[in-house]
Amino acid sequence: MQLGQIIIFPIKSLDGVPVETARITGGGILEHDRSYAIYDADGKVVNGKRTPRVHELRCQFDARIAEVRLWPNGESSSAQFQLDDPVCIGQWLSDFFGFAVALRHEPHSGFPDDRTAFGPTITSEASLRTIQGWFPQMTLESVRRRFRTNLELTGGEPFGEDHLFGAPDELKPFQVGLVKFFGHNPCQRCVVPTRDPDSGQATGDFQKKFMELRKRLLPEWANAQRFNHFYRFTVNTSIPPTEAGKQLSLGDPLVF
Prior knowledge:
Blueprint: E1 2-8, E2 17-19, E3 21-23, E4 36-40, E5 57-62, E6 67-72, E7 79-82, H1 86-97, E8 101-105, E9 122-124, H2 125-134, H3 140-147, E10 151-154, E11 172-176, E12 179-188, H4 206-216, E13 232-238, E14 247-249, E15 254-255
Parallel strand pairs: 9-10
Antiparallel strand pairs: 1-2, 1-10, 3-14, 4-8, 5-6, 6-7, 11-12, 11-15, 12-13
């Protein structure tokens, strides 16, 4: 298996950006990945779990000039902002959501959901294509956007990424290119994958059907004790501090 996609999500919960290379920061994340986040006045993150209107917001990020464009679904014009001016972005986002929000920045360690397994999430194209077969009304890109995974492997069998975690309390080492990883666990999913990534409209029985088929098709070699339920997909990881400054590139081989 080798690295076939790298996707970063510069603003947490908003659109991803495919890139050909990604540098590892000193905080163990992909550079620019979830390095910005939207917070409300109570200090709570604004994301798709709590705020379905997030799905109606599109963004385009340009790291070279630290610029972002934002626009609601279906609109042809966009608002353009420099990311070093969070006040203006916050005002625009507050108008969009209908309540006060602010954009925060943490370039070193970002804003991961899991503070222990804070590294990039990993899946495989074969797994995404299998899931698309479970929901034939969806495109492959729709499935990809629902699960919002950073690193996508090509080659191998469906759910081959389940090799990358071990027993409970085990950090399983593996390597992609020159970068060392630890695999933690299969990621517990939230409500977001059940919704269309553009409209936010829920797909009926998505979670129930996903769990039934995930359980039925769990590979024989998979560590079943890591599945207290079967709404788990993609692998949570961490990257040790020794890897800071190294780079991932498309085509890097997986070694475990």
